[in-house]
Each structure stands twice: as structure tokens, then as C-alpha cells.
Write a structure and sequence with these properties.
Chain B: This is Beta-ketoacyl-[acyl-carrier-protein] synthase family protein. The structure holds two protein chains of two kinds. Chain A is an alpha/beta fold. In chain A, 30% of the residues lie in helices and 21% in strands. Chain A has eleven helices and 16 strands. In chain B, α7 packs across α14 and α10 crosses α11. The chains are: A alpha/beta, B alpha/beta.
């Protein structure tokens, strides 16, 4: 198992910045991407804020042939994948087609596309449903479309584990690289900010109903009262470490460790699974807790879930022993997109020696976390831990490490 | 280092024609079909009006009223099949470290039936663009994000290891089990409860397949509607169901002296990178997946005793797949029986791959190859031995099962008798 998996390309579509550079400077500068929903009128709904990707003009990036057959989530994914490949200096046509695969995650597929066709079915009749409905809404769509766009015939797939899925997809990418495929496009983008998707998310009862964009999503704050959903995420290029070195690629860092667990069934009285996921990821990376320089936390902004996460972090690292941050306070929770976006942030944090902040929060002291609040904190970083949880008990933890 | 070998020690199938693996095998081995005119809703607005529906009573399988309310039909299939597969394995999961027990659930379209029904309500029959949240049930989000299926299965069996839903269209059912086998092989889990489930027989699914003429319009003889490889076939018959397995490491299974159905000896998936629904006729990518799966299984093409086909019953698929098998097995393709159980149980999208793994394992168990029903006049371009009409008794120690799906996914799995000596 000596093959290392490294990240050589990053493509970002995020509510506080379109494109990696815009997003990263916004993130280090504490720029908020949460605002009142503009894509439909949210007045009638109890929650009205979201993190919407600004200024995305799909027709500037994708052919007119692709637009009628793609949901917004697929358009964002295709563009993020294009940017990630360009960032990695990869021209797919120059590589053997079976040497490239695509492993992404999804939570809700092309939900807005599905909304349109359900409306066509029930309002207008069966004959009005689009021929593209057979694939444009389903969960596998992004991996399929990325593989087609770039002629990638290697192992491809999609995992769905809600908010944890993005890290699970990256773990799947590493698995395929270890089995011999040199390059895997991975990560996740999610987007379901449409009335039908909004009603689905409201049903959880976990959305913040605050109208204040700076006070609605407050993980680890005494006033935590739910989360704000967002759209977007990150697509990453992962490669076999030797192959990347051989082609002289710029390397952001290594996927050094991963662990995933499920919480026990409710009412079992057993410990939640997050601590075990962290322990597994550190063991997989052969690291002691003291070697971790920063934790990108999940930050559910639900008091019980925040306590669970704080307890898991302090159980492994000790009280206030490692800097912790939740940059998704600037984007909202992007479902499967959050884990890869946080992983991208962790890699750039290592590169630039800076921890992006958790904005807007006043940390609850009981949690005993060293939260990086208000402004970015300079720090020498070699190793970062990224945590992602999914509704329904999914816990994933991933360690990234500098390779230089 | 000796590589960890993965075996199937528990199986359960929920399929059209009868719940339970024994009824399932009875249907297949007798060549009966379970396709019929749609009864779940009025099919008259649709071009295709036949389906393979499962007669499934969730109460009879121990689900509580609250579980039935919160779970989509596909989640209900998954939980019942997973529990029964665990019972079949004889494993006491409570005695294991729960973090070493993983869950992998394949599904192509998740809770599509529940979503279709709930959309109709919150939109008041499609009239409201700003759909009404006050009519949404609390479990709507579980329908929206099908990772809820993995949660339900994990809670039902007490698993706390890595758990996820694998959603790769119509290869989901092979890919979820292939993924599960990799978890054991790499040491991330000791036991995986793996399988897949789909319950897509809903107006929205019928309408979308109507729009691309993928499903058959043959209503006059619904029981003869699914005709893979036949010259008269004109599309697939939508089905539903689930199959689940208990996967374990071979030595652990031997140590506890349990029955082993088959070894998951090889698996691979590749993509055609060509079209979301179209297939190139040469089958090159499926052939590559087969080649790699055989290589992983350390099996020569000539050692394959039976090919369990994707055999959906579209002209495009049947020719693509025939080409892929010839390309990968060479002359042996002509000597190897290859059949499609979709002729009997329809095409249950993400579930069928697991149901076909179950059929393959049971073929090894019984040394009987299930037939392709309704195959009377083969397409001249499909010139392999498709085992028409009648099951065939033969020694079956190594089976290749393949799948092909929207999105371009092409998957292959090799099941082998673990007692066979590796080459």
C-alpha cells in the first residue's frame, strides 16, 4: 500500500466565490456568501436564506447542446471539473482513456430538473415529460457527464451519504488509484435551491429560520439554532503520487488518511461514531493527534450535534489543543459539496500558512475548542483533519498532509 | 501477503414473482415470468403499460407502521432483505465490533415513488410552482436523499462501519457489492451487509422511459413482454425489488463453519465515456471490465461456466453486450450459456444487478443455469447460446455477471466456487 494519492487540481464553485482564486481570497477575508434566496420567492417559507453561487452563467462555459439536458448541479460540476483539470495541467485527450476515472458524491441529484418534469407530468400530462428526465435528475449524473465530456473510461461511480458523501467519494478515488488507475476526478457539487428542494430540506426541521445573514448559521455558538443550506462544492484531481511526480505536476498535498463510521441507532445509548472516525483516519495516516495542525469541523449548528462534535475533537486532541475552524459559516452547508470544499480549503491553508476563519460566531466556552473566529489566523501547517457528517448518522474524517 | 478473499454467506431476494430467495429460484429455474399489466396506478396514459411488480406486504415482514410511513418502498425492500440475509448467514452481528460491520446499498433512483407521490401533494397536482411546505411529511428529506436507505439498513442490523449508497444507474446493484467486497479486501470491514434496492414503478419513471422509447409498448401479452435477445423484442419491462447479501472474509466464514454460497472473486467497472443513454456497438468498455474482473479472479476466460447477462431487451443493449462477451471471452463465448433473468423479473434498475448476483450464486448452488424466457426467435446479430425457455442442469463453478447503465457505466463481477483451485 505504498502508493500515495495526491491532489493536483482544484475547481471550486462556492456561494462566496466562483472559481478557486475568488473563493479562496473571499474565504480568507471572511466574506459571507449567505443571503436571502433570489432564485425563487422565499417569502412563504419559514427559512429564507441560502448560500447561492453568484454570477454563474452556464452558457459561457457549456455548449447549447448540453444545457437542455443538464440540471444546475451538473452544470456547476462540469465547470468545476474543467477548472480542476486546467489547474492540474491535465489535457485528458493526451492520456490513455482507461487511465482516468470519475468518483463523485451527490445528495439529491439534479433535483431542480426533477421538479420541472414532475410539474410537467402532473400539470400537463405524461407526454410532456422530457426525454432527458431518464438521466438528468438521477444521482449518477455528474460522474456520467464528466466522464463523457473528457473521455474518461476508467472506474467511475457515485456515492450518496448526505453531507459525508464528498469525503467518501475522495476515499473511493484513492481506492481506485491504489488499484492502479493513475488519475481520478473526484469531489462533489450539490445544488437543490428550488421550491421542491427547499420544501424537502425544510422537512428536516434543522434549517435556521433567522433572516440575518450574519446570524443565521452559528455552529459552536450558544445561539446555534440550525443551519443555512448552500449550493456548490469542489471538484479535485487526484493522482497516483509517482505519476504526478513523473509529469512534474504541482502537488497541493496528499490524502493521507480516512475513516468512516455510522452513529448507532437512536436510543441505543452508545457513543456517536465521530470520535471513532477521527481515530481511524489518524491511524490510517499513521499520525498522532499532536501532529495535526488544524481541524476543519463539520459544524452542524445544532446544539446536540455541536456538543457531539466538540466532545469527539476534545476526546482525541484534548481541550483547546488544536485550532478548529468552520469556513462553511460563509457558504452554508453544501451537503456532499462541503467535504471536498473544506478539503480544498485545508490544502490551500497548508500552502499559504493561514487558517480561514469561522465568521459570525461567539464560541460557546463549554465546548473547549480553540475556534479560529473573526479573521484568518497565520500558522505553519503541515497536516489538516477534515470532518464531514451526514444526516442519518454518517461520519467521515480525512487527513491531508503537505508532501514537501 | 495473502490477499483477503470475500465470500457470500447470506442471501435474500425480494423480486417480482415472490418474496424470498426460494420462491425467486423456483420462478427462475422453471422459466416462469412475473411481468404483468401495471396495477399500482392507472397505466392508460402511458406508452408502456407493463411492469414486473413485487407482491410485497411490509407488515408481513415485520415492519412497524411508523417504519412503513417513513420509508419509501425501496427502503422497505432494503431493510427486509438485509435483515433476512443476515439471518440466512447465521451471523450474530451483535457479537461483532459494530465498527467492523459495514453497509453498502445500491440504488439508481432512490425514493422515486415517494418523491412522485409527495410532489403531487405539495404542488397540489402540479398547480403550485411554489410548492406548499405545510403539506410535506417529516420524512420527505429521506426520500430526497437516498443515503437514508443506508441509514435504515445500518440501524436495522446494528452496523456502525463505513456505510453508503452507491448510485451508478443500472449498474448500482453490481457496484454496491463490488464496493463492499473491496472494503473487506482492504481491511476496512470484516462483514458487509450489501445489496441494492429500487422501486421505480411510478408515473414519473414510466413517463421518462416512454419519452425515449426504452420500455416495451407490448401490452397484449404482458407475461411475454420481456424478450431479451429475441428478434421481436422492443424494449425492457420495468421491474422492482431488492437483493441483499452478507459478505465475509473467507477464512472467517470457514472458521465458523458456515455455508458459503460463492466467492466474489473479481469485480471491475469501466465507463464508455460516450453517451448518457447510448451504447457503441463494439462493447469495448464492458469487455475491458470483464477482462479486469477475470484477471482479479485469476480465472481464464475458458473457465467461465455461465454468463449472467444484462439482457435488458433493448436492441442496442443486446447487441452491445453480445459483442462485449465475444470480445472478452473469445471463442469460449460461443460455448458458454448466457441468459437474462430480466425476461422473467423485469429490469429493476439499480436493484437488478444484485438480484442477478443472487441468481448467479443460486445457479452455482443448484448447478442449474436459469433460462432466457420468451426467446423463440433470436436476433440474427445475437448468435450466442442464450439458454432459451428452459433451465439447464450443468456444473456451474464460475459465473460472470455483467451490467450496463445510463451514464455509461459498464460493470462485471466474477463469482467462483471458493473450493476451486486457483490457476
Amino acid at each position: 500500500m505504498s502508493t500515495r494519492t495526491v491532489v493536483t487540481g482544484i475547481g471550486v464553485t462556492a456561494p462566496n466565490g466562483l472559481g478557486t482564486d475568488h473563493w479562496w481570497s473571499a474565504t480568507c477575508g471572511g466574506k459571507n456568501g449567505i443571503a436571502r434566496i433570489t432564485r425563487f420567492d422565499p417569502s412563504a417559507y419559514p427559512a429564507k436564506l441560502a448560500g447561492q453561487v453568484p454570477g454563474f452563467q452556464a452558457e459561457q462555459h457549456l455548449s447549447s447542446r448540453l444545457l437542455p439536458q443538464t440540471d444546475r448541479v451538473t452544470r456547476l460540476s462540469l465547470v468545476a471539473a474543467d477548472w480542476a483539470l486546467a489547474d492540474a495541467g491535465i489535457t485528458p485527450a493526451d492520456l490513455p482513456d482507461f487511465d482516468m476515472g470519475v468518483m463523485t458524491a451527490s445528495s439529491a441529484g439534479g433535483f431542480e430538473f426533477g421538479q420541472g418534469e414532475l410539474r410537467n407530468l402532473w400539470a400537463r400530462g405524461a407526454g410532456h415529460v422530457s426525454a432527458y428526465q431518464s438521466f438528468a435528475w438521477f444521482y449518477a449524473v455528474n460522474s456520467g457527464q464528466i466522464s463523457i465530456r473528457h473521455g474518461m473510461k476508467g472506474p467511475s461511480g457515485v456515492v450518496v451519504s448526505e453531507g459525508a458523501g464528498g469525503l467518501d467519494a475522495i476515499a473511493q478515488a484513492r481506492r481506485q488509484i491504489r488499484k492502479g488507475t493513475p488519475l481520478i476526478v473526484t469531489g462533489a457539487v450539490d445544488a437543490s435551491i428550488c421550491p421542491w428542494g427547499w420544501v424537502g430540506q425544510l422537512a428536516t426541521g434543522k434549517l435556521s429560520t433567522s433572516d440575518d445573514p450574519t446570524g443565521a448559521y452559528l455552529p459552536f455558538d450558544r445561539d446555534a439554532a440550525g443551519y443555512v443550506p448552500g449550493e456548490g462544492g469542489a471538484i479535485l484531481i487526484t493522482e497516483d503520487g509517482e505519476a504526478a511526480r513523473a509529469r512534474g505536476a504541482r502537488v497541493y498535498g496528499e490524502i493521507a488518511g480516512y475513516g468512516a463510521t455510522m452513529d448507532p441507532r437512536p436510543g441505543s445509548g452508545r457513543e456517536p461514531g465521530l470520535r471513532a472516525a477521527i481515530t481511524l483516519a489518524l491511524a490510517d495516516a499513521a499520525l498522532d493527534p499532536a501532529q495535526v495542525d488544524v481541524v476543519f469541523a463539520d459544524g452542524a449548528a445544532d446544539p446536540a450535534a455541536d456538543r457531539t462534535e466538540a466532545e469527539a475533537i476534545t476526546a482525541v486532541f484534548g481541550q483547546r489543543a488544536v485550532p478548529v475552524t468552520v469556513p462553511k459559516t460563509m457558504t452554508g452547508r453544501l451537503y456532499s459539496g462541503s467535504g471536498p470544499l473544506d478539503l480544498a480549503a485545508a490544502l490551500l491553508a497548508i500552502r499559504d500558512g493561514v487558517i480561514p476563519p469561522t465568521v459570525h460566531i461567539d464560541p460557546c466556552r463549554d465546548y473547549a475548542l480553540d475556534l479560529v473566529i473573526t479573521a484568518a489566523r497565520p500558522a505553519t501547517l503541515r497536516t489538516a483533519l477534515v470532518l464531514a457528517r451526514g444526516a442519518g448518522g454518517f461520519n467521515s474524517a480525512m487527513v491531508v498532509r503537505a508532501t514537501h | 501477503m495473502n490477499r483477503r478473499r470475500v465470500v457470500i454467506t447470506g442471501i435474500e431476494v425480494i423480486a417480482p414473482g415472490g418474496v424470498g430467495k426460494d420462491r425467486f429460484w423456483d420462478l427462475l429455474s422453471n422459466g416462469r415470468t412475473a411481468t404483468r399489466g401495471i396495477t399500482f396506478f392507472d397505466p392508460s396514459p402511458f406508452r408502456s403499460q407493463v411492469a414486473a411488480e413485487a407482491d410485497f406486504d411490509p407488515y408481513a415482514h415485520g415492519l412497524t407502521p411508523q417504519e412503513i410511513r417513513r420509508m419509501d418502498r425501496a427502503a422497505q425492500f432494503a431493510v427486509v432483505a438485509a435483515r433476512t440475509a443476515v439471518a440466512d448467514s447465521g451471523l450474530s452481528l451483535d457479537a461483532l465490533d459494530p465498527y467492523r460491520v459495514a453497509v453498502a446499498v445500491g440504488s439508481a433512483v432512490g425514493a422515486t415513488m415517494g418523491l412522485d407521490q409527495e410532489y403531487r401533494v405539495v404542488s397540489d397536482g402540479g398547480r403550485l410552482d411554489l410548492v406548499d411546505h405545510t403539506y410535506a411529511p417529516p420524512h420527505l428529506y429521506n426520500h430526497m436523499v437516498p443515503s437514508s436507505f443506508a441509514t435504515e439498513v445500518a440501524w436495522a442490523v446494528g452496523a456502525q462501519g463505513p456505510s453508503t449508497v452507491v448510485s451508478t444507474g443500472c449498474t448500482s446493484g453490481i457496484d454496491s457489492v463490488g464496493y463492499a467486497a473491496e472494503l473487506i479486501r482492504e481491511g476496512s470491514a470484516d462483514v458487509v451487509v450489501a445489496g441494492s434496492s429500487d422501486a421505480p414503478i411510478s408515473p414519473i419513471t414510466m413517463a421518462c422511459f416512454d419519452a425515449i422509447k426504452a420500455t416495451t409498448p407490448r401490452h397484449d401479452e404482458p407475461e411475454r413482454a420481456s424478450r431479451p435477445f429475441d428478434a421481436t423484442r422492443n424494449g425492457f419491462v420495468l421491474g422492482e425489488g431488492a437483493a441483499f447479501f452478507v459478505l465475509e472474509e473467507l477464512e472467517a466464514a470457514r472458521a465458523r463453519g458456515t455455508h458459503v454460497y460463492a466467492e466474489i472473486a473479481g469485480y471491475a467497472t469501466r465507463s464508455n465515456a460516450y453517451h448518457m443513454t447510448g451504447l457503441r456497438p463494439d462493447g469495448a468498455e464492458m469487455a475491458e471490465a470483464i477482462r479486469i474482473a477475470l484477471d482479479e479472479a485469476r480465472l481464464n476466460a475458458g473457465e467461465v461456466d455461465y454468463v449472467n447477462a444484462h439482457g435488458s431487451g433493448t436492441k442496442q443493449n443486446d447487441r452491445h453486450e453480445t459483442a462485449a462477451v465475444k470480445r472478452s471471452l473469445g471463442e469460449h463465448a460461443y460455448r458458454t450459456p448466457m441468459s437474462s433473468i430480466k425476461s422473467m423479473v423485469g429490469h429493476s434498475l439499480g436493484a437488478i444487478g444484485s438480484i442477478e448476483i443472487a441468481a448467479s450464486a443460486l445457479a452455482m448452488e443448484h448447478d442449474v443455469v436459469p433460462p432466457t424466457a420468451n426467446l423463440h426467435r433470436p436476433d440474427p446479430e445475437c448468435d450466442l447460446d442464450y439458454v432459451p425457455i428452459t433451465a439447464r442442469e450443468q456444473r456451474t463453478d464460475a459465473v460472470l455477471t455483467v451490467g450496463s447503465g445510463f451514464g455509461g457505466f459498464q460493470s462485471a463481477m466474477v463469482l467462483a466456487a471458493p473450493w476451486r483451485s486457483p490457476r
